[in-house]
Structures are given as C-alpha cells and as structure tokens.
C-alpha cells in the first residue's frame, strides 16, 4: 500500500520560511518522480514543484520559482520542500504525490 505522509506545516509570518517533508513507503520510491501540489481555500489544486526520480532535475511553478526548493533522499525515501520568502498567497494545504497517489496534506498558513 502506497503511503505518503507530509509534515512540517504551520503558521508563519510573511517573509518567513518553512520546510515540508514527506515520508514515502509502499512503492519503489527511487523509481518515481515526486511532486508537491497545493490547494488554497476555495481553489483547485495547483502544481508547485517536481523532482525527477534520481533527484537531478527539478521543475517549479512560476509562482514559487526562486523561493521554493524541492529535494529528495532516495535512501530515506523522503521528499522535501524548502519554502522561503513566504507570502499570504502561499497559504494552502500542501500535498506530496506521485502520478497516482497523494498524501493527506499539511496546512501552511502565511499570515501576520
């Protein structure tokens, strides 16, 4: 059974930083590209970032480029999202995902 468990969300002031983590199990993690997706209140899901299976290539949405960094550890089966210069518009539930499975999400609130 695929399991994706996110952690690290919380309340942060504008301009602050957070690091989200996702622990993966139940599949051969090193063979899969991993993504972070977010969903803001009242809006549809928004793709945030992708890291390819070997970790060598990453892709970002324009809205987070140069502020967020996605990375992975194929020994620990973890994927992370380092978020800096956070804005109120970054407020959302953040999910890590494969092409077919999502975790339960972790809430990020950016507010003063």
Commentary on this structure:
With 112 residues, the chain is mainly beta. 0% of the residues lie in helices and 49% in strands. It is built from no helices and ten strands. It has a six-stranded mixed β-sheet with strand order 2-10-9-4-5-6, with no helix packed on it. Strands 1-3-8-7 form a four-stranded antiparallel β-sheet, with no helix packed on it. The protein is globular.
Question: Any chance you could write out the topology, listing elements then pairs?
Answer:
Blueprint: E1 3-7, E2 10-12, E3 18-25, E4 34-39, E5 45-51, E6 58-60, E7 68-73, E8 78-83, E9 92-97, E10 106-110
Parallel strand pairs: 2-10
Antiparallel strand pairs: 1-3, 3-8, 4-5, 4-9, 5-6, 7-8, 9-10
Radius of gyration: 13 Å
Number of strands: 10
Structural class: mainly beta
Alpha-carbon distance between the termini?
40 Å
How would the global form be characterised?
A: globular
Largest sheet: 6 strands, mixed
Put simply, the count of helices is 0
Order of helices and strands: EEEEEEEEEE
Helix fraction bin: under 10%
Mean pLDDT rating: 97
Q: Uncertain spans, ≥5 residues at pLDDT below 50? A: none
**Strand arrangement, major sheet:** 2-10-9-4-5-6
Strand content: over 45%
Task: Record keyword descriptors for this entry.
112 residues; mainly beta; 4-stranded antiparallel sheet
Brief overview:
This protein has 112 residues and is mostly beta strands. Helix content is 0%, strand content 49%.
